[in-house]
Amino acid sequence: MCKISIIVPVYKVEKYINRCINSILNQRFKDFELILVNDGSPDNCGKICDDYATKDKRIRVIHKNNEGVSSARNSGLDIAKGEYIGFVDSDDYIHPNMYDILYDTIVDYKADIAFCDYEMVDNKSIEKYEIPKMLNIKKFNNVEALNEMHKENGVKFVIAWNKLYHKNIFKNIRYPYGKIHEDEFVIHKVLFNSKNTVYINCPLYYYYQNEEGITKGKFTLKNFDAAYAYKDRMKFFKEIRNINLYNKAQYTFVLNFFNCYKKGFNLLNIDNTHIKIYKKLFASELLYLLKCPLFNFKEKCLWVLFCINSNLYNKYLQLKGEIL
């Protein structure tokens, strides 16, 4: 058994995959296996992965039909041998000390999850490898971490790839098939399962802004997947009877839903069929949302209008200049 299993879903990243793999193989921490999941990539990625596997015995390659990031991650989780789990996206790359620091931190603090900050990079970015001598480390229990997740800068708590997880976190958790925003569907369960989560305020992960990426590109109706993820989150917090987190999840659901609705209306000319689907999604939560203390009376009246007469609601948005 190795200490860490690093799972990398691979799809249409022929230009970037070498940089990603090399950044992992060049880690100061050596006791890991690298699981490359070729998710039916139509380019030369599969061969590149196989070539690396012949050169380094720590590398295992899975070749499968294209089913998306969630399926690829799940395939890696199913065969992972490590005591700890990490994810890296195949167009990104990581600091040479990333897993060394995460592993030492997770062990020293007896944590279930250790995670670091990240830096957004592009083709013009200059790599920065300086690490402060004294790392700023913060500890959170599960409820504290879930509260931090809902703050304005809480995205670092949500994303999967800046973290090192104890394998038991994923014992009964897998990513949802066929969805984008896959991290949003599972993070509330992941953080809830972690009794001790540790954050290192240092950017050790480099998130490449690739315009061709799934979640890094243009808006599509698939962006509504996030609303379904937040609905699942509301259900989860209701089941564990945490009203504070439940209200925060409601707030996130509403903001995301209407943001997607307005963007979809302007960019995609949402038809009546889709409007009915999204109205049904929102209406299923309306009675509970009306009790949420984080919204005012006017906002709640507009929700009711949307559910009763979406055409009239759309005219209101047009008068406000929020949709075309």
UniProtKB/TrEMBL annotation:
Residues 5-173 form the Glycosyltransferase 2-like domain. GO terms for molecular function: glycosyltransferase activity. CDD domains: Glyco_tranf_GTA_type (cd00761). It holds the Pfam family Glycos_transf_2. Keywords: Glycosyltransferase, Transferase. This is Glycosyltransferase. It comes from Clostridium sulfidigenes. The lineage of its organism: Bacteria, Bacillati, Bacillota, Clostridia, Eubacteriales.
